[in-house]
């Protein structure tokens, strides 16, 4: 037990630094390190006549595809190492048209690293303003470098709608949550919604605390999704899936609020991060959520970073 | 269909004003007099289009329909407005011969009127992305514009607020403002050249020919106060060297301010006329025609009067 505690504390500094970097889904995933792409297979799920979800692995952002007479539209782009497999999966559905658009749900590399290979072939990359702005920030400890070819070339700041393949596609920019450049993509006719990394995946959801995200934003936007959607909406999360409903979002919402309150209370009691991690405030939520990039210790670190920063202000 | 002499005169006036967009198709709609000009689908003769250079990589094709601004990049062309559909071949001819052979990547509609967005019908199938405000898209789909050609194609990318395009190393800023000339107006700004395309939010160089009778498309979401506010926003927030209006000649920021002042004067004049609460809409219309010399029948008197009356009459 003693050794275990030391182990926790020793790795904590690194874990917090990594978490603060958004390491799990930004720099780390951006480079595609620690993932054996050769072994990954893409699983395709059909959601409607012309709508599909492509999943590669828990650490790879789920891609959605709309196909039809106008061509192909994707949400997020996986990694360049998976480009050929993703294209093969697209073609395997019978989709023959060019990939005209990629919409990024946010800037993190596990959702955008594949952009460049599409853009090279003429695909237009679309995202909220902040995605481009943050991708172009000079490299620093807190901002990993994003390759210029992955940067979106069509951006919006408020609302955007696309009309493509007979669908009306709404891009909704919610208040900052996972990052300050999040986009919810709603296929109105099919009643399908891709929510990126808003809290819909059954895991310890990464919070981009250095990309404008916050724990309170995550909680608020989880609720917002349930307002924008209806009980029939097929909700595609950024990871895991392929589809969740209000039940799953509510479960995540409860976890977020409970753990946030526990951590906030301990911060107010003057506890250090090490003490908070040792108190295991996620313990009753660990079942089924372990094994991802974001361990309980890292997740607690993210929430701690966010809450303490705001308390200082 | 052969227009009557009177209708032809009105048509010419309308075309000069860039008001042809609201002229009436063969079937008159309620709220519009039958003596309005003929349809917008029959090609009207026009002088050959010319290409005017605004900056190293920025061109204008003025003339019939609407002014068209063209950004030239290695990645392709971005157009602001695309005239009537029937101008497409002549427009593409002058672009190909005088400006560039690159593909047209983007077309931005400054608003939904057919003299600015009619060309979408050809540009969209040719592979261009068409961009407008969300109300601009919706007004086209809902056929809000009386007498619009029946085959108009709405934008496939629409937005509210601001959007930006990055093409061939250049940035294009597109802003939607809410009610103005219509409820769909956007401006298109090229920061590298400090050129702004304002669509019909400002008339330049055609005031003597009728630009002083503003067409406030209330049915399409326009508002005289909103229009004044929009122009204030534009002049206070943008560094501007050149202004490309939807019709007329290229000008400067001073022209936007002058047009804003004209609108304010009109607003104050109409509000003062209505102030005692006894005047009807018919009175206002008669006053504008008789005392202010608004052309009648004319698109501005038809489209602006009711909205201004409702907007500016004493409340309560």
Explain this structure:
The complex is a heterodimer of chains A (313) and B (316). Chain A is of the alpha/beta class and 313 residues long. Chain A has a single domain (2-312), classed as Metallo-beta-lactamase, Chain A, CATH 3.60.15.10. Chain A has helices at residues 2-20, 27-31, 83-92, 109-112, 115-120, 129-135, 215-228, 246-268, 273-278, 296-312; strands at residues 43-48, 51-55, 63-68, 71-75, 99-103, 124-128, 154-156, 159-164, 167-172, 184-187, 192-194, 234-236. Chain B is α/β, with parallel strands linked by helices and 316 residues long. Helices cover 34% and strands 19% of the residues of chain B. Chain B has a seven-stranded mixed sheet. In chain B, strands 8-9-10-11-12 form a five-stranded mixed sheet, with helices on one face. In chain B, a hairpin with a 2-residue loop joins strand 1 (52-55) and strand 2 (58-61). The longest helix of chain B has 22 residues, at 253-274. The N and C termini of chain B lie far apart (48 Å). Chain A binds chain B through residues 124, 129, 132, 151, 153-164, and chain B through 129, 134, 137, 154-167.
């Amino acid at each position: 037990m003693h050794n275990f505690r030391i182990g926790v504390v020793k790795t904590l500094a690194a874990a917090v630094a990594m978490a603060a970097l958004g390491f799990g889904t930004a720099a780390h995933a951006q480079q595609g390190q620690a993932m054996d792409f050769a072994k990954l297979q893409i699983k395709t799920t059909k959601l409607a006549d012309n709508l599909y979800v492509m999943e590669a692995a828990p650490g790879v952002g789920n891609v959605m595809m709309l196909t039809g007479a106008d061509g192909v539209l994707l949400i997020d782009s996986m990694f360049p190492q998976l480009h050929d497999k993703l294209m093969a999966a697209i073609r395997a559905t019978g989709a023959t048209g060019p990939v005209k658009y990629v919409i990024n749900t946010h800037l993190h590399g596990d959702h955008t690293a594949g952009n460049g290979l599409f853009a090279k072939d003429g695909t237009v990359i679309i995202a909220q303003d902040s995605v481009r702005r943050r991708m172009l920030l000079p490299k620093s400890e807190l901002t990993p470098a994003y390759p210029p070819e992955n940067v979106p070339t069509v951006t919006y700041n408020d609302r955007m709608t696309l009309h493509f393949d007979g669908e009306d596609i709404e891009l909704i920019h919610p208040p900052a949550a996972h990052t300050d450049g999040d986009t919810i993509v709603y296929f109105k006719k099919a009643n399908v919604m891709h929510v990126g990394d808003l809290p819909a995946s059954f895991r310890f959801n990464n919070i981009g605390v250095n990309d404008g995200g916050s724990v309170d934003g995550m909680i608020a936007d989880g609720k917002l999704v349930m307002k924008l959607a209806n009980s029939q909406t097929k909700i595609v999360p950024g990871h895991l899936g392929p589809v969740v409903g209000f039940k799953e979002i509510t479960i995540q919402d409860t976890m977020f609020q409970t753990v946030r309150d526990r951590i906030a209370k301990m911060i107010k009691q003057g506890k250090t991060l090490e003490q908070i991690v040792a108190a295991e405030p996620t313990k009753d939520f660990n079942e089924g959520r372990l094994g991802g990039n974001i361990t309980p210790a890292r997740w607690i670190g993210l929430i701690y970073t966010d809450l303490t920063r705001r308390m200082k202000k | 269909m052969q227009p009557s002499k009177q209708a032809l005169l009105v048509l010419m006036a309308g075309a000069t004003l860039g008001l042809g967009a609201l002229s009436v198709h063969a079937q008159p709609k309620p709220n519009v007099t039958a003596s309005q000009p003929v349809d917008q689908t029959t090609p009207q003769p026009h002088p050959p289009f010319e290409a005017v250079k605004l900056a190293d990589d920025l061109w204008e094709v003025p003339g019939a329909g609407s002014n068209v601004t063209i950004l030239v990049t290695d990645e392709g062309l971005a157009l602001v407005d695309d005239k009537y559909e029937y101008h497409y071949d002549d427009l593409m001819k002058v672009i190909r011969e005088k400006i560039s052979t690159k593909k047209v990547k983007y077309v931005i509609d400054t608003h939904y009127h057919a003299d600015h967005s009619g060309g979408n019908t050809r540009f969209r199938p040719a592979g261009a992305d068409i961009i407008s405000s969300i109300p601009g898209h919706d007004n086209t789909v809902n056929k809000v514009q009386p007498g619009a050609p029946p085959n108009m194609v709405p934008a496939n990318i629409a937005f509210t607020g601001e959007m930006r395009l990055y093409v061939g190393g250049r940035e294009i800023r597109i802003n939607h403002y809410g009610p103005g000339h219509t409820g769909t107006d956007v401006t298109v700004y090229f920061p590298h050249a400090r050129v702004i395309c304002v669509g019909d939010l400002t008339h330049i160089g055609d005031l003597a020919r009728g630009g002083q009778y503003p067409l406030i498309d209330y049915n399409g979401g326009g508002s005289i106060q909103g229009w004044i506010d929009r122009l204030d926003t534009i002049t206070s927030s943008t560094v501007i060297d050149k202004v490309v209006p939807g019709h007329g000649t290229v000008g400067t920021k001073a022209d936007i301010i002058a047009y804003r002042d004209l609108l304010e004067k009109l607003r104050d004049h109409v509000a003062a006329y209505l102030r005692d609460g006894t005047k009807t809409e018919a009175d206002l219309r008669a006053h504008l025609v008789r005392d202010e010399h608004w052309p009648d029948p004319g698109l501005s008197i038809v489209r602006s009067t009711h909205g201004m009356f409702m907007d500016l009459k004493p409340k309560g």
